[in-house]
UniProtKB/TrEMBL annotation:
Gene3D superfamilies: 3.30.390.30, FAD/NAD(P)-binding domain. The keyword Flavoprotein applies. It catalyses: 2 NADH + O2 + 2 H(+) = 2 NAD(+) + 2 H2O. Residues 335-430 form the Pyridine nucleotide-disulphide oxidoreductase dimerisation domain. InterPro entries: FAD-bd_OxRdtase, FAD/NAD-bd_sf, FAD/NAD-binding_dom, FAD/NAD-linked_Rdtase_dimer_sf, NOXase, Pyr_nucl-diS_OxRdtase_dimer. Belongs to the class-III pyridine nucleotide-disulfide oxidoreductase family. It comes from Enterococcus xiangfangensis. It comes from the Bacteria. Its cofactor is FAD. This is NADH oxidase. Its EC number is 1.6.3.4. Keywords: FAD, Flavoprotein, NAD, Oxidation, Oxidoreductase, Redox-active center. Residues 3-306 form the FAD/NAD(P)-binding domain. It holds the Pfam family Pyr_redox_2.
Length: 444
């Protein structure tokens, strides 16, 4: 028997455990997590807080008993105090203070990410919340449910910030949305798309403060005001959604790290210690758009990395296919999807790109009923002409189109190969001169 210890049991750790338990009967699997629950889909928190779904039960997709039924030993509410890498021993402490040691043949680190929390004055006041764990979602929902909470400040206009701002507004609160950047969603979309989202937010009553850095929280015990570059604002509650960084404390002194502190892994999810693998948000991942290792914290990437690590630990050599960082968001019916690099991201990473834009109705003009405009941008490398990114927006559901672009990036498809690609036409769905074809044909 080979004994594998997995530290962390959310998406990446669960994927690794399932891969080992379902495919490798010679594996003894031990799972350790400091939380009281596992498999929480944090991306659904805003849907629950905004009452767009009935409750949070469906946001959990597995439980401790499922893994015990497969033969795993699983410790919840258990912290890892330290790891002795030379002796291959994990030193643990349970909630009741009981200490124990688990030895391992192979170790998988799936410790995830942690919210970025600037230590500005007043950061420790009551009423300042984060959104990562289920318990944090519960706390935010409980606060928003109070009649005394009328004005909510959301710090950070990335995906989580924009989604929770919508949720708070749906619950009847005044919402102030702050970001040091000059627009929302700058990590995923170019200005052509974020201008549309910024207007969407404002049209629905969100008070946006872009290019406005929050510098201080005020209050005696509980926060009652925030101070930003533009002035001081009275608030009843703060939700911090600035972003996430890798939670790589346990092995930072033993393993080779990426520039942002994540564990540096190879295409097999193996770290600089051959008996230690790292998966999910605590580790790097290979970007097919950049053609190098980078850091992209997404649940979908976490699952894939866990599967790859599980097979490699189990004895089946498997190289990760790489990712594009595909993602999407839907706010008050405005749908944005993207994959790979935006023009902004390409410039930031030193990739010389060109892009082609197109805008048209989803379906022919004679179609009655829902038929909204679609905007598309395809980004391609100037020298090789390979596609490295795409963005789409519409009030139609155009989400499936981004999967094709994800595959195009992974397979190094050029913008020229896309020009005469066989894309079907039927008036119920699209136009004869499809916006994908038209964008490709109009490329330089």
């Amino acid at each position: 028997m080979t004994k594998t210890v997995i530290i962390g049991t959310n998406h990446a750790g669960i994927a690794a455990a399932n891969t080992l338990l379902d495919n490798y009967p010679d594996q003894e699997v031990v799972m350790i997590d400091r939380n009281s629950n596992l498999s929480y889909l944090g991306c659904g928190t805003a849907l629950w807080v905004g009452r767009q779904i009935d409750d949070y039960q469906g946001l959990f997709y597995t439980n401790k008993a499922d893994f015990e039924a497969k033969g795993a030993k699983i410790y919840m509410e258990t912290s890892v105090d330290r790891i002795d890498f030379s002796e291959k021993k994990v030193h643990c402490v349970q909630k009741d203070g009981k200490a124990f040691i688990e030895s391992y043949d192979k170790l998988i680190l799936a410790t995830g990410s942690r919210p970025i929390a600037p230590k500005v004055p007043g950061h420790d006041l009551d009423g300042i919340h984060f959104l990562k764990l289920f318990q944090e979602g519960q706390a935010v929902d409980a606060e928003i449910s109070k009649d005394s909470v009328k004005k909510v400040a959301v710090i950070g206009a990335g995906y989580i910030g924009v989604e929770i701002a919508e949720a708070a507004k749906r619950r009847g609160k005044e919402v102030l949305l702050f970001d040091a950047a000059d627009r929302s969603l700058p990590s995923y979309y170019d200005k052509w798309f974020t201008d549309e989202m910024d207007k969407n937010l404002a049209d629905h009553g969100i008070e946006t403060h872009f290019g406005d850095l929050v510098k201080e929280y005020k209050g005696s015990d509980r926060v009652n005001a925030i101070v930003a570059d533009s002035g001081e604002y009275q608030v009843d509650m703060v939700i911090n959604a600035i972003g996430f960084g890798p939670n790589a404390e346990l092995a930072k002194d033993h393993l080779e790290l990426f520039q942002n502190g994540a564990y540096l892994v190879d295409r097999h999810q193996q770290t600089s210690d051959p008996d230690v693998y790292a998966v999910g948000d605590c580790a790097t991942i290979y970007s097919n758009a950049l053609e190098k290792m980078t850091y992209i914290a997404l649940a979908s990437n976490a699952v894939r990395s866990g599967i790859v690590a599980g097979h490699n630990v189990g004895g089946t050599p498997l190289e990760a296919a790489g990712v594009q960082g595909s993602n999407g968001i839907s706010i008050w019916g405005l749908n944005l999807v993207s994959t790979g690099l935006s023009v902004t991201a390409a410039e930031k990473n030193g990739v010389d790109v060109k892009y082609t834009d197109f805008e048209d109705l989803q379906k022919p003009g004679f179609i009655k009923g829902e038929n909204d405009t679609v905007k598309i941008r395809i980004v391609y490398e100037a020298s090789s002409r390979r596609i490295v990114g795409a963005q789409l927006s519409s009030r139609e559901d155009i989400s499936m189109g981004i999967h094709m672009f994800s595959l195009a990036i992974a397979k190094h498809v050029t913008i020229d190969e896309l020009k005469l690609l066989d894309i079907f036409f039927l008036p119920h769905f699209n136009q004869p001169y499809n916006y994908i074809t038209m964008a490709a044909l109009s490329a330089e």
